[in-house]
Amino acid sequence: MGAVQRPGGFAMKMNERISVLQALALSEGLTKTAAKSNARIIRTNERSGARTETPIDLGKILSGKSPDPMLGPRDIVFVPDSAAKTALTRGTEVAAQTLAGILIFHW
After folding, report:
1. Which residue from 19, 9, 23 is spatially nearest to 74, judged by alpha carbons?
2. pTM value?
3. pLDDT for 70-83, tens place per residue?
4. Contact 3, 79 (CB under 8 A)
5. Alpha carbon 19 to chain centroid distance?
């Protein structure tokens, strides 16, 4: 969930495990504003219901510099948005729209 193209749950067979990269592939990859270094795996203890968060650096995993963790049932991969990337993207879009408006109305 989070800054991926298609967030959502994926049905798995009993005792099936997939890796973080496989989960990213199922979600069709990261958005351009994803904060790759701030992602985390949220794991729920089946007995107590307590949640633990394990930080992961998707940039390192994608480049092969860190191992690709395996996920189990009920695990959640959360990829937050990067505030800086979001601001830069929106600023660029506004600038492009402003420039297009100036060019259209100037001619």
Report:
1. 9
2. 0.72
3. 998 889 999 999 86
4. yes
5. 14
